[in-house]
């Protein structure tokens, strides 16, 4: 009887545990975006200069996959949750996204997205400086829009399927910001 009780307690504790804990950050095993249930596909840490942890990211999709291109180009909701591992100024956050987009896109693709990148910069200005532990959420809709939330407060939406693909491409595209982070996000 004692073993049965112990087994039930352990099973209940396991079921209630988050799906992942990465670098001290707990991520939920599932979320809902636009009425669609999403599961955690993978999670990892963005590291800069081989030693500075910038953020933990969790990537949520409708069904687990190891195909980055499928995630980038899907016509269904997805979510990226970034949990900051250090304090950053808004300008630094914008510069990091610019650098990643410039490195992962062709010059023509980057130039075509300049209006949307300017919108993203405006949203980062609204956010202001971020602190360690702050959550930045990017919800990608089936219609190709990106809604950004900061610490649970919705900011605004960028309407561009190309921007959705470009942002997701930062992490799971052909030229990601960090190869081992891409691998962690595509565990499926």
Question: Structurally, how many domains make up the residues?
Answer: 1
Helix content: 25-40%
Rg over CA atoms, rounded to whole Å, is 17 Å
Q: How is the biggest beta sheet arranged? A: 7 strands, antiparallel
CATH class: Alpha Beta
Distance between the termini: 38 Å
Task: Please mark out the parts with pLDDT under 50 across 5 or more consecutive residues, or reply none.
Answer: 1-18
Q: Mind telling me which CATH architecture this is? A: 3-Layer(bba) Sandwich
CATH fold-level name: Chalcone isomerase
What letter string, H or E per element, gives the SSE order? HEEEEEHEHHHEEEHH
Question: In what range is the share of β-strand residues?
Answer: 25-35%
Number of helices: 7
Instruction: State mean pLDDT (0 to 100 scale).
Output: 90
Shape: globular
Number of strands: 9
Q: Strand order, main sheet: write it out.
A: 3-4-5-6-7-8-9
What structural category arises from helix and sheet content? Answer: alpha+beta
């Amino acid at each position: 009887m004692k073993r049965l009780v112990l087994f039930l307690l352990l099973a209940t504790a396991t079921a209630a545990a988050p799906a992942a804990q990465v670098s001290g950050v707990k991520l939920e095993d599932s979320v809902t975006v636009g009425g669609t249930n999403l599961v955690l596909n993978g999670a990892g840490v963005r590291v800069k200069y081989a030693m500075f942890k910038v953020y933990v990211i969790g990537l949520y999709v409708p069904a687990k996959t190891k195909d980055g291109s499928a995630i980038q180009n899907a016509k269904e909701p997805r979510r990226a949750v970034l949990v900051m591992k250090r304090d950053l100024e808004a300008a630094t956050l914008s510069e990091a996204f610019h650098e990643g987009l410039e490195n992962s896109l062709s010059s023509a693709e980057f130039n075509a997205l300049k209006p949307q990148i300017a919108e993203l910069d405006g949203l980062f200005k609204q956010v202001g400086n971020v602190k360690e532990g702050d959550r930045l959420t990017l919800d990608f809709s089936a219609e190709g829009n990106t809604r950004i939330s900061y610490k649970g407060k919705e900011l605004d939406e960028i309407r561009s399927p190309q921007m959705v693909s470009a942002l997701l491409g930062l992490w799971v595209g052909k030229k990601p910001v960090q190869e081992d982070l891409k691998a962690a996000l595509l565990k499926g």
